């Protein structure tokens, strides 16, 4: 049996597809009304309140001892000894040490990745605008100690926000505006999806496989099979599929299929196809797709399971740096 293809004979396949598509269309009508109202409200809120809003620090505690020093020993790629990346990190409860970090990377870590003291799930990017030119070039080493024993997520998020506001005099605001997005819709001919089979995946983290026992993957994750090629994802919802694609495409993917339930899906993709590479995603939905953008590969893959990826516009958060100063050495 080939996974990712419908089960049964032609008549069963046609009836199943018709039922899924009929249900999707009914749900999509109401969903679109609600979504459009929400979008209009979000955009109006962004226009009226965004420029005046300042992204508030959620910090309930601050680092008690902070050392911030420029680092002139970073390699061109950002790592020590010429290595690439954003430098090293070490931490223990109540202490965080970072090396070779640009202020932009610190802002992204504090206000996007760990904004509320929890790690942001993989998905869309939040654009950060403004700031002086050195925000992306000058690198710093930071060593910070707290009075208690907060964990990595709290220190990287709310407590880092307080550090940036204190040491770099950062002022930042968040607002909503219309941004490029993608919509996942049902393609002509209807969906070709296999309903998820029990036991194919687990809802919790399965951890590493035990010796001599088969490994059951987590539901909603992508798994690379060996015999048929491509990627399998078991127990996948349309919303989950959109979240996976958002991370690869660097822009929100909105579920407009109207399809409920979980499915076992085979996509003719590789992990390389899903990687956004070093380039930036197109800022205009109508722009030509660049080689580093995986849109073409993902779009072709979802077409084969009766889905379609469409460039569109929608509301999205934007962070704007209004003020940033170099810290005094300590």
Task: Report on this structure.
Residues 1-59, 80-85 and 278-291 have low confidence and may be disordered. This protein is of the alpha+beta class and 330 residues long. The strands form 3 sheets. A 4-stranded antiparallel β-sheet has the order 1-5-3-2. Strands 4-12-6-10 form a 4-stranded mixed β-sheet. The longest helix is centred in the N-terminal third of the chain and has 40 residues, at 10-49. Helix 2 (103-113) packs antiparallel against helix 4 (158-167). The chain has 7 helices and 12 strands. It has 2 domains: 10-47 and 179-205 and 216-314, no CATH class; 63-177 and 319-323, no CATH class.
Task: List key phrases describing it.
330 residues; alpha+beta; 4-stranded antiparallel sheet; 4-stranded mixed sheet; 7 helices; 12 strands; 28% helix; disordered N terminus
Shape: globular
- Poorly predicted regions are 1-59, 80-85, 278-291
Helix content: 25-40%
Radius of gyration: 23 Å
User: How many separate helices?
Assistant: 7
Largest sheet: 4 strands, antiparallel
Strand order, main sheet: write it out: 1-5-3-2
Give the distance, in angstroms, between the N- and C-terminal Cα atoms.
66 Å
**Helix-strand string:** HEEEHEEHHEEEEHEEHHE
Give the tally of β-strands.
12
What's the SSE blueprint?
Elements: H1 10-49, E1 63-70, E2 89-92, E3 95-102, H2 103-113, E4 128-130, E5 139-146, H3 152-156, H4 158-167, E6 171-186, E7 194-195, E8 222-223, E9 231-236, H5 238-249, E10 253-255, E11 263-267, H6 271-274, H7 295-303, E12 307-323
Parallel strand pairs: 4-12, 6-10
Antiparallel strand pairs: 1-5, 2-3, 3-5, 6-12, 7-11, 8-9, 9-11
Helix pairs in contact: 2-4
């Amino acid at each position: 049996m080939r996974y990712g293809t419908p089960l049964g004979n032609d008549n069963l396949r046609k009836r199943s597809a018709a039922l899924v598509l009929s249900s999707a269309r009914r749900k999509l009508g109401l969903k679109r009304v609600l979504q459009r109202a929400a979008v209009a409200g979000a955009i109006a809120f962004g226009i009226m309140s965004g420029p005046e809003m300042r992204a508030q620090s959620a910090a309930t505690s601050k680092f008690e001892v902070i050392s911030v020093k420029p680092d002139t020993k970073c390699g061109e790629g950002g790592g020590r000894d010429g290595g690439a990346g954003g430098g090293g990190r070490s931490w223990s409860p109540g202490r965080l040490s970072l090396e070779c970090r640009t202020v932009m990377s610190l802002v992204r870590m504090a206000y996007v990745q760990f904004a509320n003291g929890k790690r942001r799930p993989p998905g869309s990017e939040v654009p950060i605008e403004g700031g002086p030119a050195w925000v992306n070039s000058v690198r710093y080493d930071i060593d910070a100690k707290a009075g208690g024993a907060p964990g990595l997520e709290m220190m990287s998020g709310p407590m880092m926000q307080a550090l940036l506001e204190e040491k770099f005099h950062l002022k930042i605001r968040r607002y909503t505006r219309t941004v490029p997005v993608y919509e996942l819709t049902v393609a002509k001919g209807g969906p070709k999806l296999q309903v998820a089979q029990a036991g194919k995946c687990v809802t919790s983290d399965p951890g590493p496989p035990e010796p001599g026992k088969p490994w059951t993957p987590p539901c909603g994750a992508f798994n690379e099979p060996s015999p048929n090629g491509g990627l399998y994802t078991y127990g996948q919802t349309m919303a989950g599929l959109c979240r996976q694609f958002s991370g690869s495409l660097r822009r929100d993917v909105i579920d407009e299929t109207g399809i409920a339930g979980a499915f076992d899906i085979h996509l003719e993709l590789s992990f390389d196809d899903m990687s956004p590479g070093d380039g930036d995603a197109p800022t205009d939905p109508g722009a030509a797709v660049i080689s580093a953008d995986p849109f073409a590969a993902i779009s072709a893959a979802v077409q084969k399971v009766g889905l379609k990826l469409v460039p569109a516009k929608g509301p999205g958060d934007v962070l704007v740096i209004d003020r940033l100063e170099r810290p005094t050495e300590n």
